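[User] Once you have settled down, look closely at the record that follows, and write a paragraph about the fold.
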Amino acid sequence: MKKTLSTLFILGALFFAGCNDEGKGSSNSAQGSAAPQSYIDGIKKRGVVRIAVFGDKPPFGYIDETGKNAGYDVYFAKRIAKELLGDESKVQFVLVEAANRAEFLASDKVDITLANFTVTPERKEVVDFALPYMKVALGVASKDGDITDVSQLKDKTLLINKGTTADLYFTKNHPEIKLLKFDQNTETFGAMLDGRGDAIAHDNTLLFAWTKSNPGFKVGIRSLGDQDVIAPAVKKGNDELRKWLDDLIVKLADEKFFHADYDATLAPVYGDDIKADDVVIEGGKL
């Protein structure tokens, strides 16, 4: 009798264990059948793509006289919305400062950053960059372009924006130069006009445009440091969206999209001083 009861107890335990395993298997199967939503599907469900741009950096990202976003980066952002959602108006522009571009991606406030974001090793550690669409280097502008060499900046005040490549470059390589830093481009250029600095360091592409509008100033140092590139950025690890952007940039080369972008947004500012091929990258290839 004891053996019979023991046998029944063991069989019962095995039966209930089998039921529990079966239940677990069914749950896993159900979970497995519901594939996680892709990031791009999430954007499509939301119905708008959130893209970070500048609001005070003409001609790349700024608010025009009608109150609308405009510029080289904005032109590209609208095409992204058209390709992704079928309508270029399906983009939510989020204005950022140079110092918070990476943070806005990390905190999921935006999907893509197009705020004239130069690719650097330090930034690659915190965001992922797609293929580049623009060339850039550092430049230095001053009154009448009198400063033509970095050595002339010793014991002078250099104006820069926080979190820019100019900030990184001069902080690392030239501790002997006094830096006056600002968050916004309007503050930095305003300080230059007010005489609070002897020179201003920024992307040369921006300085070329600014000095055209301010004839008393010239870019005395046209290229400093390495030739860099500007590219779209996504949150670190978002390989799906990064690859989608790569594929789009390659595809757009067939129609010379970024040359068209240049003609529409930069050529009216630069005039004959700069050629499109000095700035534009097509298909992500230098």
About this structure: The radius of gyration is 27 Å. The CA atoms of residues 127 and 236 lie 4 Å apart.
